[in-house]
Amino acid sequence: MATYRELLQQIRSEISEVDATHARELIDSGQPLVLDVREQDEWDEGHIAGAIHVPRGHLESRVERAAPDHSRPVLVYCSAGNRSAFAAKTLAELGYEDVVALSGGFTDWKRNGFPVQLQAGLDASRRARYSRHLLIPEVGEEGQLKLLDSKVLLVGAGGLGSPASLYLAAAGVGRIGIVDADVVDESNLQRQIVHSTESLGEPKVESARRSIEALNPDVEVITYKERLTSENIERILADGWDVIVDGADNFPTRYLVNDASVWHDIPVVHGSIYRFEGQVTVFKPHVGPCYRCLFPTPPPPELAPSCAEGGVLGVLPGVIGSLQASEVLKLALGIGEPLVGRLLLFDALSAEFNEVKLRRDPDCPVCSDHPTITEYIDYVEFCAGTREPA
Amino acid sequence: MTKVRIPLTLREVTGGERELPAEGDTVRELLEDLMGRFPALRNQLVEDGDIAPFVNVYVEGEDVRTLDGLETEVRTDSTVILLPAMAGG
Fold first, then answer.
1. Does the predicted TM-score (pTM) go above 0.80?
2. Which residues on chain B are in Cβ contact (under 8 Å) with A247?
3. Least confident range of A295-309, A354-368, B52-66, B71-85
4. Which residues in chain A are classed under CATH 3.40.50.720?
5. Cα–Cα distance between A279 and A274 in angstroms, integer?
6. Which of A103, A139, A325, B51 is the Cys-Cys partner for A167 at CB 3.0 to 4.6 Å?
7. Choosing among B63, B81, B82, which should be mutated to test the A contact, i.e. which has the most A CBs within 10 A?
8. Spatial distance between the Cα atoms of B16 and A78, rounded to a whole number of angstroms
9. A276 touches chain B (CB under 8 A)
10. B27 vs B6: CA distance, rounded Å
């Protein structure tokens, strides 16, 4: 039985090591793949420029994906040269033909004054743009980087999607997807502030893209000029979204969004509005209730409030859509108490907020342990003959 | 009498009031009282003798489905909210 020291010595005798100066020459020659096997927090604090990162614990399972060419030379390093010695031995066993380890590790590399690449932080321009976020301890640089790395899908670029998209874009959410098949109509402009008189007749997704890009060029906008259906929902979700903002104007879409979110385990920030009243909640699959726990099935078309005669106070979606954006940011940052299991009701006329509890339905047709709905359902259109969102 | 909050989506069939007083010791009795006075409310609230799946009734902030359903007891000072699904966005 060998001690750690003996084992390390044994391994060292079986691998090739180079010192920092020699390693730098190798790297400058452009030959080797540089592999960092330290832990995430060590990597985050700085690493050799151009290196790839595979923590030692995941080396066997992940390195071949990161370095498929076994004949390319590999320079492996860790902090002091011990973990990289074991890693070099493993790499040889995996069939990498030319492996060397950096004997003094990253510590020796830095001691020699060789260049270090710091974890991508915020540049001066971003620091200025997001300075009011950086001042909040709950957000800070780390939080802002999370936002820049987050991907939010907006279903609907109408009343709710307008303020939500603008605030999410302003906050620096890195990728915003928008699903909407409609074009901008004059009757939209009383509340849909992401569009403008200039964009009348233009697809809403394009109009929204222009507004978002003008507001914040950091945001990548992905547009889907189509109505969400059972046919396209899987394709749209395959683009990878962290959170969905449901600002749809009809029941069929809302039930599709719900069922998909449960099956794909994506939280939905739900909002809906009617005249002076609005509701907001967060459906976090398998943690809190889903939309079908709340309303197992949509109302029959003849009972659904008519979109055409509904009407809505222009600012109401501003309130509700902004609350949705606030919930999205909390989810992305992992802070606060999201509206999971709580439905927030807003009445603009009385200027009152009320809250009711939402509980998971143990017999929910979608999110319970014995679901009865396992395929998408395209419910019939509820506002037949009208194209105008509420 | 217990006050029942009527959402905007139902106010057209209940005379426009934001809150209506209703008589009864249970949710069933309250709803029967209201539906007796406003018959158009019936198919907005009830389906197959139970609360319709597209509407919720809350007593003290709790969905009565998680309590005793239509038999959930109410007091005169209970906060009762009717909440139909709404899809506008």
1. no
2. 89
3. A295-309
4. 150-357
5. 9
6. A325
7. B63
8. 72
9. yes
10. 14
CB contact under 8 A, A390 and B88: yes
ipTM of the complex: 0.93
Interacting residues of A171 by C-beta distance below 8 A, sequence separation 6+: A133, A147, A325, A329
State which CATH number among 3.40.50.1000, 3.40.50.720, 3.30.565.10, 3.40.1410.10 fits the domain covering A150-357: 3.40.50.720
Q: What is the pLDDT of residues A108-136, one digit of tens each?
A: 999 999 988 876 678 889 999 999 999 99
pLDDT at position B17 over 60 = yes
Tokens of A250: 């009809």
Spell out the domains of chain B, with CATH numbers in brackets.
2-84 (3.10.20.30)
Q: Which of B43, B65, B80, B86 should one mutate to test binding to chain A, selecting the residue with the greatest count of A CBs within 10 A?
A: B86
Contacts of B89 in chain A (CB under 8 A): 156, 158-161, 246-249, 271-273, 317, 389-390
Which of 303-322 (A) contact B at CB < 8 A?
Answer: 303-305, 307, 310, 312, 317
Running along chain A, 390 residues long, what does each successive block of 10 average in pLDDT?
Answer: 92 95 92 93 86 93 90 96 96 96 95 83 90 93 94 98 98 98 97 98 98 97 97 97 96 96 98 95 97 92 66 96 98 98 96 96 96 93 44
Superfamily of domain A4-111: Rhodanese-like domain (3.40.250.10)
Closest CA to B12 of B58, B44, B59: B44
A199 contacts A210 by C-beta, under 8 angstroms? yes
The gap between the terminal CA atoms of chain A, to the nearest Å, is: 75
Between chains, do A354 and B81 touch, taking CB under 8 Å as contact?
A: yes
pLDDT in tens, A153-193: 999 999 999 999 999 999 999 999 999 999 999 999 999 99
* A279-A285-A291 Cα angle (round to 5): 35
CB-based contact B88 A297, cutoff 8 Å? no
Question: Chain A closest CA to B23's CA: distance in Å?
Answer: 23
